[in-house]
Design brief:
Number of helices: 13
Structural class: alpha/beta
Mean pLDDT: 83
Radius of gyration: 30 Å
Helix content: 40-55%
Order of helices and strands: EEHHEHEEHEEHHEEEHEHEHHEHEHH
Low-confidence stretches: 234-243, 286-294, 423-431
Largest sheet: 7 strands, mixed
Amino acid sequence: MQMRIVSASEQGQLSQVIMGYRRMDEELRRELEQKRLLAEALEQANLAVQAKDAFLSHISHDMRTPLNAIFGFLTLAKGKLEERETVLNYLERTEKAGRQLLDMISRLLEVSALSGDNGLVETPCDLCETVGEVYAGLQLQARGKSLDFVLDCADVKQSGVYADREKLKQMVFSLASNAVTYTRSGGQVCISVAQTDTLPNDYGVYRIKIADTGIGIDESFLSQIYEPFERERSSTISGIHGAGLGLTIVKSIVDRMDGSIDVRSRVDEGTVFTITLRLRLQEVTSQTLPDAGTPFRKILLVEDNEINAEIETELLEQEGFLVETAEHGQAALDKILSAPLGAYDLVLMDIQMPVMDGWEASRAIRSLPDPVLADIPIIALSANAMESDRRRSRACGIDEHLTKPMDLAALLDAMDTLSRRRVRPVRDRIE
């Protein structure tokens, strides 16, 4: 209770007083509740600061480690120029460290976009073919560790579906790459795809399972594995570098696909991730002509950075391509308009350029009155790596969006996919 006594008399006299009292229980409860909430908020803020500091410490270490390797091996190579095999070994290890660093940067960028409004772009794709590309890309690493690496799509009745192919591929790659990385030499990794049901509304239920006999995850940590920057073991302990973002990205993609993900794991026995997705089925169409597309050989490379243009031109010419360069989008547009018909089979388009950027140039090409020129294949090759950048490229008529530094194998794969995509059905050709 709270009591208050106030004199109501004139000064110097004490004949009248006013006494009041009230119950304080509810007010005290509210005050205590406010203090509790403030204390919890402060604790959460402190935990967030600690998590941020731990993350920055780990990411600084994990980024500086490959950077140290890059500079170290390049320094060693300069001193061994006469020993070809030694220099090649140093360069291979430099490339490996560079790819580790690039992978960390890519994952950080992907997570920074998770809270944005990045919807999925559903296009026709072959589920088994997409998973098979992931399998093929990891075979060399698996072979180097003598793993029993298996892909099983025997239980898929219809592989043609509508899905965001790049997100699907990224999701499977993250899980399969972790499985290969965290499985000891001589172990087993199995990627399996099965169609568990066909629904009456032209949808199919698919189960993608990635199982390994690797180091496993402690049961107490399973509830945290999808949290950003969480890692059961730091790279200092595990010897494996990474930002701890792969599973966060996987969970985000699964949620956006309205799917589910389940994990079972035992330490030193292995881990099984199971993803269940409901995907719209493609209609079964008539047979297409086998790989009848003309190979892309004459390339217009649009690149404003002189060093990038020099490196990319030499890499492409080593593969047998004929390369002509343009320093910005307007120059590329002028060359396409003034060159003889068929002078270019493909345009490799940078995005951020002076005078006219790649998006504006691509829109201008697609608007040309000559349908042959307007339909020339365009592949973006850009440092713009966000999903919003890819969506903008598609909106401008760009066929594929690849990121820098140029991955020659990925570029050749994109060219092959684009060539096959442009092959029309037999009946369309006859008509």
